[in-house]
Amino acid sequence: MRSERRLRRLVVGEGDEWRWTVRHRHTGGGPCREVLTLHRDGVAVRVVFRDGPGRVVGAGFHAHSGLVVDEQGRSVSLHEPGVVRAFVDEVRQRGLAAGEVDGWELLPAVVVRRAAGATPGVPPGCPPGP
Questions:
Q1: SS3 label, residue 90
Q2: Which residues on neighbouring strands pair with residue 102, listed in sequence order?
Q3: Residue 57, Cβ neighbours under 10 Å: how many?
């Protein structure tokens, strides 16, 4: 079994290597959070998903660690390398730098990216599913 604490490696292109980890966090009485941390060249971007009305973050009732579901029913598992790749692509496209970003803002674009990647011949930006 792999350690949940170690950084995993993701190679995006020639010489473009990222490290990543997923953690479930609790803060003194605040909402649960799932945090996907992306590391590259000594810089970390934390993609944070806070629990809230209509939103599910992993390790909750009927949920597994790393699962995030928004109020529209869009969901991803932050432990899947393909999902992490979609977040890396979205972070790069938006030019996000070090620090914290609201994962709920990125989720719709990541879901579309994943669906388009799974369906050859679909134009970029096309909404997912039938």
A1: helix
A2: 48
A3: 25
Q: pTM above the 0.85 mark?
A: no
> CA angle, corner 91, sides to 34 and 96, nearest 5?
100
Q: According to the model, what pLDDT value does residue 28 have?
A: 76
Strands 99-102 and 33-40: unpaired
Compute the distance between CA of residue 71 and CA of residue 94 in angstroms, rounded to an integer: 23
Residue 93 backbone zone (phi > 0: left; psi -120 to 50: alpha; other: beta): alpha
CA 61/CA 58 separation, integer angstroms:
8
Residue owning tokens 């944070």: 48
Provide the pLDDT for residue 42: 87
Residue 80 has φ and ψ, to the nearest 5°, of -85, 125
Angstrom distance (rounded) from CA 39 to CA 32: 22
List the domain boundaries for the chain: 8-118
Rg (CA), the chain: 15
Q: Spell out, as residue ranges, where the chain has pLDDT lower than 50.
A: 1-2
The DSSP string of 47-58 is: EEEE-BTTBEES
Q: Give the bridge partners for 52, in sequence order.
A: 55
